[in-house]
Amino acid sequence: MPLHSSDTTPEKTYILIAIGLLGLYVFPYVWLGEGAHLTIHDNLDSDFLYLYLLKITHTAFNFDLNTVIPNMMSSGPDATSSFSGIPRSAFRTGLNLEVLSFYLLPPYAAQVVNFIAVHGIGFVGMYLLLKKYVLPESNLAFTCVGIAFLFALVPCYIVHGASVTGQPLLLFAFLNLLTKQSRWSDWLIIGLFPFYSFLVWAGLFICVALGIIGLVSMIRLRQINWLYISGLFLLSLLYVGSEWELIYGFIEQKYVSQRVEFDYSQLRSMRLTDSLRRSADLFVWPMFNTGAFFTLGILAVAGLGAWRAYRKQDFHSVNWLIGLPALAIIICLIHGFYHYLVVWLGDSSLGLKFRVFQFDRFYFLLPTLWFLLFALALRQFRVNGRWSRLFLAGQFALMIIANKEWRINIGKMTGYITEAQHPSFRAFFAEKQFTQIRTYIGQPQANYRVICLGMHPSVAQFNGFYTLDSYQNNYPLPYKYAFRKIIATELTKGTRQMRIYYDAYACRVYLYTAELGMNYLFGKTQHPALNHLQIDTDALASLGGKYIISAVPIQNATENRLRLEKVFDEPESYWRVWLYCVNN
């Protein structure tokens, strides 16, 4: 129902204040520029790099299934083994808007633009959803805007686009179809969503959830809603169209992926108590890449709200306030016990499919679910009363605590956090330093292969080097064994955890050492050294490995047929680099 002009004034004010606060949320990334810290884990070490790599390899809009990207996991020109690299189909589709943004803009600028877009979509989508379907009353405007603002602060991974924060906007569009109030803008939302999200992470599970919502509604009303079915069909069809390379490769098995050897019986404990603990952890603190925040505050408010609704005999609200946490528990249990299903299916055709594609990722739906629960719970308290404001303020504090990357950048702005503690984008990728290394070697980068030690290979890859090591979620299985020969002795010397991590997982194909363990981040202010390195230099040479780019000195380099070429130190870099040449 439209609001009277007298009612819209405070609501507009709330919206403007929220937009201003979101501007402050973005401000550190603009002010610091490339001096800002960006999350490294599953971001700068991988997904962020993949988006940029498509640009520098000129394959962003290459849809040929036979195209291979040779910048990692490929053997050099003088190698005795033959590996060509990673199939282009294993990377993000060129039809994705994030790929387009990284193609058009410098990488850090693309990150900031997507940061603004992802969190802005989260605010607009949650506001529209709450305003029309959850908190439509004009006197709930403050609560509606406040929850939308808090949802926009969910610290999800930007490289996933709107996979998480776009869900309320998509649900808003589908509820309009369900209630037969659709407009052209709803179809636009549905049409664009597959091109700014990721099927593997969230798309499939969003489609399943929307299918269940539509099915339940049609069963209750005892009529088929063709408009809703058409919307769901369009969404699914566009996902297939946008991700057709990945889907085709998955179904047709164009190559045998290392993922077929994921051993869940080793990667996850098979004890019942550990699986329950894993589920409980996800319930209390959602997965880091979906936007991790402490949920028990919302759960407590929901519990109080359910009690108040029960006292008022509002059983419809009670059902929602109990049902949504129950649904969250089911999602968490699916994740916690998924490995039992995979192990039970074994090496059957279906088992391999469940092993390669993780069908437990319904947890990508949790942030939206939790904030819808929060909105429904606050309905049970006096409008704009002290309890409602206290709960919103408390959740705001929890969201600030959850935004570790943002807090680090505030620390950088105020001088409390140094580069040595948390490297900036500029210091991590160290372009000036790696330009010096490239110039010193003095050959076209495609003519030789490097391997990294004590640092993520993404640093070298970002700077155009062709690496034997890499962090890849999907690559040809034979390479796993060819690379393992290099580090076989170190894996034997190392911990059981290290061996399992490589043999049962092997997405991080890194130069592991027993002395350094599973640490890949040794800055110049740290002073470890390798005294007992034992790598198979013949296996390294057979892949065409010519140089080791190391963040730590190798004291017994000659024993491994390595020759120190030069030490590179650059003021803006996080690293001190020892460049070793492999003696054949």
Ranges where pLDDT stays below 50 over 5 or more residues in a row are 1-7
Number of helices: 26
Largest sheet: 4 strands, mixed
How many domain units? 2
Overall outline = globular
User: What's the N-to-C terminus distance?
Assistant: 78 Å
Strand content: 5-15%
Number of strands: 8
Give the % helix: 55-70%
Order of the strands making up the biggest sheet:
3-6-8-7
Mean pLDDT: 94
- Rounded to the nearest angstrom, the radius of gyration is 26 Å
Structural class: alpha+beta
Keywords: Membrane, Transmembrane, Transmembrane helix
Transmembrane segments: 12-32, 108-130, 142-175, 187-213, 225-242, 282-306, 318-342, 362-381
Pfam family, one: DUF6044
Organism: Spirosoma flavum
General description of the model:
The chain has 584 residues and is an alpha+beta fold. 57% of the residues lie in helices and 7% in strands. The strands form three sheets. A four-stranded mixed β-sheet has the order 3-6-8-7. It has a two-stranded antiparallel ribbon with strand order 1-2. A hairpin with a 6-residue loop joins strand 7 and strand 8 (576-582). Helix 1 packs antiparallel against helix 5. The longest helix is centred in the middle third of the chain and has 31 residues, at 315-345. The chain is globular.
Please describe the structure with a list of short key phrases separated by commas or semicolons.
alpha+beta, 8 strands, 584 residues, single chain, 57% helix, 2 domains, four-stranded mixed β-sheet, globular, two-stranded antiparallel sheet
Write a brief caption for the model.
The protein has 584 residues and is an alpha+beta fold. Helix content is 57%, strand content 7%.
